[in-house]
Amino acid sequence: MGPVLWALLGPVLIVATVMDGLGGTWWLRVLLWLLWLSAAAWWDVNRHAPRGQLRSLLDVLANLVHNAALVVIMIEVCLIYATAGWYKIQGSRWQDGTALYYPLKLDYFTPWPALSDVLASSGLVVMVLTYATVIVQVAFPFTLFNRRLKNVLLVIMIGEHAGIALLLGLPFFSMAMIAADAVFLPTVFLLWLGRRATLGRERLLGLLPGRPRSPEGGGSPEVPAARTAPDDRGGPGKERGGTGAERGGTGEAPPHGAGGGHTLVG
User: Fold this and answer.
1) Predicted pLDDT of residue 42
2) Mean pLDDT, range 11-39, rounded to an integer
3) Greater confidence, 42 or 180?
4) Is residue 237 exposed (0-12), middle (13-18) or buried (19+ Cβ within 10 Å)?
5) What is the pLDDT of residue 250?
6) Dihedral angle at the C-alpha atoms of 152, 63, 51, 246, nearest 10 degrees?
7) SS3 for 170-188, per residue?
8) What pTM does this model have?
9) C-alpha to C-alpha distance for 150 and 144, rounded to whole angstroms
10) For 191-241, how does the pLDDT look when each residue is reduced to its tens digit (9 = 90+)?
């Protein structure tokens, strides 16, 4: 799918550049073209020299760009929540706890009128949700120094955005904010979620006709063990290919894309 998406996005980028569909900002054009060309270079190097020095250099550059992008997203999210929270504090409707009542009564923001009426009919619920929104947004940048408190607040904020998508009919805004919040999730949790998603995909594909089913416990189908042969001393055999040292290697872990998988940084 990588080369296919690359080939499809190339003409889209050409049309956007020619038709001035990128807002007239020169740096955005340069950035998108560099990303498009670097994807082709990455694929070519990974195909023809996966263990070369150029691939190692690309790995280092990718980690630097990845971490820089994460830092930018983190700073933007903190600014969004901090400014939104402090502006809310200055509003009289947020101070008296009635701010949430008014959007629940607007036809434009009520995809489920019955559900909105139920929430708006309870003054206590409206007040709690209003104050909780302000407290969570103002406190979020400061909770980054405490890992446990940050994780609790992330769960609350993701739930808040899911509620906004449901109650106010703003799914795209909520999905954008949830994606930005996911940057702060623990790496261990993201790796676990990735493994569970891969396992679910394999089980789903195993149900399709004509495809081998995965063994119990998940994972890819079993691969027959390599044939063994006695060594020169008549001792027990070893798997075909031997260790990295026996193959003349250094015993180092394989690079990205060689079966080792990607790691999440930041």
Assistant:
1) 84
2) 86
3) 180
4) exposed
5) 44
6) -50
7) CHHHHHHHHHHHHHHCCHH
8) 0.64
9) 6
10) 999 999 999 999 988 888 876 655 544 444 444 444 444 444 444 444 444
Q: Is the pLDDT confidence value at 61 over 60? A: yes
Any residues with CB less than 8 A from the CB of 62 and at least 6 apart, and which?
42
Q: Cβ(177)–Cβ(171) under 8 Å?
A: no
Q: Which amino acid is at 148?
A: R
Alpha carbons 182 and 225: distance in angstroms, whole number: 40
Region of 136 (left: φ > 0; alpha: ψ -120 to 50; beta: rest) is alpha
Q: What pLDDT, on the 0 to 100 scale, is given for residue 213? A: 57
